[in-house]
Amino acid sequence: MGFQIAIDGPAASGKSTVARLLAEKLGFDHLNTGATYRAVAVYLHEKGLSPSSAEEEIENALKNLKIDYVNGRVYINGKDYTEKIQSPEAGVLASNFARLEVVRRHLVRIQREICDDKNIVVEGRDIGTVVLPNAHLKIFLTASLEARVERKLKEYQKRGLKVTKEEVERELISRDEQDSKRNVAPLKPAEDAVIIDTTSMSVEEVLDRILKLVRERMNT
Fold first, then answer.
1. Domain-wise residue ranges, the chain
2. Record-annotated residues binding ATP?
3. Is 27 annotated among the ligand-binding residues?
4. What is the CATH number of domain 4-218?
5. Is residue 214 over pLDDT 90?
């Protein structure tokens, strides 16, 4: 088995930036599981399905699903979904579908297959608790709601999306509520995770902290 690093945390806590840069510095593969959930949610929505659809219908839609995550782009059955999953609506769809056991079961299996025997940095909301419970290092990133709203607002503005600060705050509060209170794989730190509050930390400071932990684990 390769060296696996799990990075969990709520939306806009810094997971994606830190995970991507950490993987680059270490020469590891990188998997953004949130992107796979958003892509599958959009895929199911395009097929006319919703979280309230019959489980059998969703099961059939997912049965022969093939997901590839290559250089930060996510493909479903060979079709690039990367641009489609960037909107706030895709994030809401993902949170709603992620509550379903049938969706999580299929995606956890696929995510584990992607990670198998790799040196890899994996980011998400249930990596250390469900997807990779035996990861060599588990990190849980957190930050104040105010800091996360500012980060997400800048991200949307950079993409040219017109959203207000109030809309972003409502989105994050709603996603936090759904992620932490869902019955299946709720968002929470693994018991052996290192919790890092990134509110007042720069990306470089967070990376330095995690790299130090990686070196310690690799040398034990």
1. 4-218
2. 9-17
3. no
4. 3.40.50.300
5. yes
